[in-house]
């Protein structure tokens, strides 16, 4: 019997593009191997792909491979999107050289691909991350051995020295690195996008012990995110917990993919994605589901890239209706051409024995908002993204979760961007209700003093900044 090998692969990049590294942590029959490498000028996505390629090549061809990656760009690309890319002869696909190499490396092998949340404390993923950063360091040493000061400065490993306010994180860079250029067709001017960095995990694979908590369902009520007992969940419903604590009315930016345009003629939902926003801040909570429609997807595969073969082992809508309904109910649903999504959702929930979603949720249609705000102009999601200078994403196919992410940016831009502080809003409201009267609000703010370790780290950073730039840092004493 062929051996089973588990691989944890990861990439890292100091700047995007910039100095990068990759790492693969390989476990087989009580043995472990660590490999890493890097490049002087690359991107985070290219390093993620290289880590997978090199890790697979390092393993025997007859071994069964179980691969864990924290990049959905890699996981979904090789398991879903690549079929459509091949049909389109790799048109408008970034990094085609590495995708073709990864595809060729996988041929004839038995491979199970899984997603794992990065930087969540899982030992295998943390080791792969360390190896990727080791690849960065070794590449930097190799480059600095015989290069000019100008190149040394270009591959500076401390991103904070170039970005002291932390506005340009590696996670954001990976989201932006692969942008689509292709115009998509859609109903009523609607344009959907395929997710690149969505948090989607293979439900068929067992969860690592450290990741079981991440699979606990998190839903939200009318005012804040709460924990829902895991027993109501389905293993193929992926719900991510909030990373930001917020209180206030819930808004869910939602999108669906379907087998066609007409729910009246039997078309069904095959994908649902929604992200949570409270007080105009994304909380990090989201829900994502693929659904078996029990009918062929037909020509719609050319739009969303989701095949019958991919959906055949996915749950029926009736099997996931309960956790989905509990997650959505009571919130304000925000969707582009909302009547399309809500008609399908109402139909599906009724078939599963639940009330229509529109009866338990408020609905906001951003297409209607856009037409009122920009009459006589094109108001597709893609057009609005360009108008409001929203960062473009890879748009080879339609998709649900990233579409919701793009729509959240568009919605915030259309409705005024940032809002005033709550205290200002309160004062304004009181002024209107009680003209001539003002109320003083006294708030005692806690003072949090830095630790000795934090002060030492600060002093070190300030010295590095002054050495690099030749001028004292703004934050120096």
Automatic annotation (TrEMBL):
**Which PROSITE patterns does this UniProt record tie to the protein?**
RNASE_H_1 (PS50879)
Keyword Coiled coil carried by entry: no
Q: List the Gene3D superfamilies.
A: Ribonuclease H-like superfamily/Ribonuclease H (3.30.420.10)
Could you tell me which residue ranges the RNase H type-1 domain spans? Answer: 1-137
Instruction: Write out the ranges of the annotated region (Disordered).
Output: 163-187
What GO cellular-component annotations does this UniProt entry give? cytosol
Q: Which family does it belong to?
A: Belongs to the RNase H family.
For the keyword Manganese, the answer is: yes
Cofactor(s) needed: Mn(2+); Mg(2+)
> Which SMART domains does this UniProt record tie to the protein?
EXOIII
Recorded protein name is: Ribonuclease H
Record organism: Acinetobacter tianfuensis
Catalytic residues, chain numbering: 398 (proton acceptor)
> Which UniProt keywords are present, listed alphabetically?
Cytoplasm, DNA replication, DNA-directed DNA polymerase, Endonuclease, Exonuclease, Hydrolase, Magnesium, Manganese, Metal-binding, Nuclease, Nucleotidyltransferase, Transferase
Pfam families under this entry? RNase_H, RNase_T
Signal peptide residue numbers:
none
Describe the protein's quaternary organization and the partners it interacts with: Monomer.
């Amino acid at each position: 019997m062929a051996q089973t090998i588990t691989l944890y692969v990861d990439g890292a990049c100091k700047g995007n593009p910039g100095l990068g590294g990759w790492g693969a942590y390989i476990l087989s029959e009580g043995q472990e191997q660590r490999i890493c490498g890097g490049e002087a000028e690359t991107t985070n996505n290219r390093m993620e792909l290289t880590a997978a390629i090199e890790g697979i090549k390092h393993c025997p061809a007859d071994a069964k491979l179980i691969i864990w990656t924290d990049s959905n760009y890699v996981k979904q690309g090789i398991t879903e999107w690549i079929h459509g890319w091949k049909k389109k002869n790799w048109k408008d696909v970034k990094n085609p050289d590495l995708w073709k190499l990864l595809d060729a490396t996988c041929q004839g092998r038995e491979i199970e691909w899984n997603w794992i949340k990065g930087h969540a404390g899982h030992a295998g993923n943390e080791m792969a991350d360390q190896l990727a950063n080791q690849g960065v360091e070794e590449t930097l040493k190799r480059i600095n051995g015989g290069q000019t000061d100008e190149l040394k400065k270009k591959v500076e490993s401390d991103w904070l020295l170039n970005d002291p306010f932390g506005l340009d994180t590696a996670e954001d860079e990976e989201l932006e690195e692969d942008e689509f250029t292709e115009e998509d067709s859609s109903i009523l001017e609607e344009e959907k996008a395929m997710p690149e960095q969505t948090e989607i995990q293979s439900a068929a694979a067992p969860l690592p012990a450290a990741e079981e908590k991440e699979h606990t369902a998190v839903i939200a009520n009318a005012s804040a995110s709460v924990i829902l007992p895991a027993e109501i969940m389905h293993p193929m419903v992926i719900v991510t917990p909030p990373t930001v604590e917020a209180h206030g009315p819930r808004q869910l930016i939602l999108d669906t993919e379907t087998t066609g345009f007409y729910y009246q003629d039997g078309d069904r939902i095959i994908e649902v994605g929604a992200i949570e926003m409270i007080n105009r801040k994304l909380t990090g909570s989201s829900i994502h589901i693929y659904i078996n429609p029990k009918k062929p997807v037909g020509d719609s595969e050319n739009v969303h890239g989701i095949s019958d073969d991919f959906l055949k082992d996915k749950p029926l809508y009736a099997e996931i209706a309960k956790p989905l309904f509990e997650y959505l109910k009571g919130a304000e649903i925000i969707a582009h051409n909302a009547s399309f999504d809500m008609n399908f959702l109402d139909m599906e929930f009724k078939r599963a024995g639940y009330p229509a979603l529109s009866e338990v949720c408020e609905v906001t249609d951003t297409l209607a908002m856009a037409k009122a705000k920009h009459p006589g102009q094109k108001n597709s999601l893609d057009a609005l993204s360009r108008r409001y200078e929203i960062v473009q994403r890879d748009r080879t196919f339609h998709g649900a979760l990233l579409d919701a992410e793009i729509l959240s940016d568009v919605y915030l831009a259309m409705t005024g961007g940032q809002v005033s502080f709550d205290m200002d809003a309160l004062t304004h409201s009181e002024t209107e209700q009680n003209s001539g009267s003002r109320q003083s609000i006294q708030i005692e703010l806690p003072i949090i003093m830095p630790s000795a370790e934090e002060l030492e780290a600060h002093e070190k950073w300030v010295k590095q900044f002054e050495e690099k730039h030749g001028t004292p840092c703004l934050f120096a004493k």
